[in-house]
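Hey,

Quick one before I head out. I ran the complex with EPU overnight. Inputs first:
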Amino acid sequence: MKEYKNYSLLIHNTFGMDVKAERYVEYDSEKDLRMLIPTLKGKVLHIGGGSNLLFTGNFDGTVLHSAISGIEIVEEVEGENELLVRVGAGVVWDDFVAWAVEHDYGGVENLSIIPGEVGASAVQNIGAYGVEAKDVIVMVETIDLSNGTTRIFANDECNYAYRQSIFKKELKGKYAITYVTYRLQKTPVLKLEYGNLLAVLGDALNDGELPTIKQVRQAIIDIRNAKLPDPKVQGNAGSFFMNPVVSREKFLSIQKDYPQMPFYEVEGGVKIPAGWMIDQCGWKGKALGRAAVHDKQALVLVNLGGATSDEIITLCNTVCKDVKEKFGVDIRPEVNFI
Ligand code: EPU
């Protein structure tokens, strides 16, 4: 267990905000966490890789971080294609994906190089290229931060939806995730339909040939690297906004003016890419102070260097207002403001 007072969170948030936590504790096991719980007084914030946060000031409370490690196959039935893998919440998400791909286990390759840690994958229901964490999560082991008891959530108890879960909403801040169990496939069932994935893979394949899981991971890495800024170079938290779902009527009325608008039919309406709308508003690559809209993917806001949270929030609000004026659609941040 590591503990610090008045601790800089600079390396713990990918936006690069230089804020401090009154107390910062990193624990390595469930036992350590249980010991820690009686000492938690006042505000508590549990972070993962800090890749989906915007700190708006110092945190006058305790910041917790899990360093629970381990990737373990817990169930593998002869003759069945599935296997269950239990992973510590503190494992870097992409280390788990790399492990799976290395062993030719399918299911998470489309989620390659998403920043963050395993615990957060289950909170955030991370998703990319037609796959979401909820598609592969079997169960989530947690510890109740009020009394140290264990509670296991089956997938259907997590209330998963697009970038949503019970851990982000109803039970926010109440449980610390300790382990997540995922269902992987021994013979990968590839998902290649999203966007330009097939086109990118196409170059590496002969006619009719199916890609290997390693090729899929490489294609995803190439697409992401081409579009998304590297937080080590330019502070950012991935998609800053969620893609809004609008009613069919609203969608049809926008489509009349913008027949080329990309869209996805979803339950309850039509999802429109916020990045496309922001791009149409002319914001792509533009800055307000030291905060900017990324020049290759308008869904991402970046810190050009030394931006304050106020500068990022001003840019966020201005972009939202412009999208509302042009399309009549409200877009909301995906990033959590702390
Ligand atoms: N588009 C533009 N201009 C832009 C950005 C996008 O015209 O500046 C258009 C694209 O051409 C495409 C459509 O909008 O037709 C969708 O773009 P893209 O495939 O890049 O995906 P997205 O909807 O913008 C979502 C996720 C990403 C994820 C990709 C791929 C959210 C909030 N974001 O972005 O997730 O990688 O799909 O699956 O759902 C993240 O959460 O941090 C993240 C990067």
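The chain has a mean pLDDT of 95.

Talk tomorrow,
K.
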